[in-house]
Amino acid sequence: MVEAASGNKLMQLIDANLVVKGLAPMPDIRVRTKYWMRIGGMFVVFFIFCQLLVTFAVIPIWLYRGVLFCMSLLWPYVVIGMMPASVDPSMPPMYRFIRKWIPQTQWCWAIGYVVWFVFHVSTTAGTLSGNLGHFFPIIALHAVAGIGLIGLLFWLHDLALRLDLHTAAHQCNLVAILMATWGVVVFVLPWKHFAAANLSAEQGAIMWWVYIVLLMLPWLWVLHLFARALFEFASYSGWSLRHEQGLVGRHDRIRKKAEAFDKEH
Length: 265
What we know:
There is one protein chain. The chain has helices at 2-17, 30-55, 61-82, 93-121, 136-162, 166-188, 201-247, 250-264. The chain has one domain. Helix 3 (61-82) packs antiparallel against helix 4. With 265 residues, it is mainly α. It contains 8 helices and no strands.
């Protein structure tokens, strides 16, 4: 009896949040997605670029963190732009809840850096280039932000399905799964090329290439897939708007050309 009741509750939860019928038609959000998804994709591309620079020691780690802090101040607004409230009636209740809370979690990126700087870097215990793992609050705050980012990807996956963007939906779903698995590995492992300074030259070189080939290259591919999904949203919206604009007055243009052709012949 207990198992049957649990099964019924699970099915009710699925029916109420995933297999939902009678949702409102998807509103026209093409203009918004055309611009905000492209901005989001550009953010991700720039983040990839910064990660490449710091990975190959082109820029110092303190500069990298400063750039990320500046980006984290703008990123929540980008997320809000990518998640219009007008689609709530067209989404299951669970995704409506996600849309309201995801942007709030993205502030944890910036808050984490502020807390880290005020309570750790400003003391004798830390420096701008120090290991973030030595200060637990920033790890906890960034973990919350990371969970929110995964939630954003699942929300985008559902949005893409409702817009018939199956490629973008597949990419968002794959990135969400990889961020929840491989992303955690990248997040928690203290493998940084500057951390190999205490090793011998040969050991440090081996450690660095293991870090690059086995850890960072797959991670950068995941981020690249995320950017592609966002650009897919933007490209579809832009193409659809151009196609619609091209249809305006099309019959009149055809009629005028036909009349001109008849006059010539």
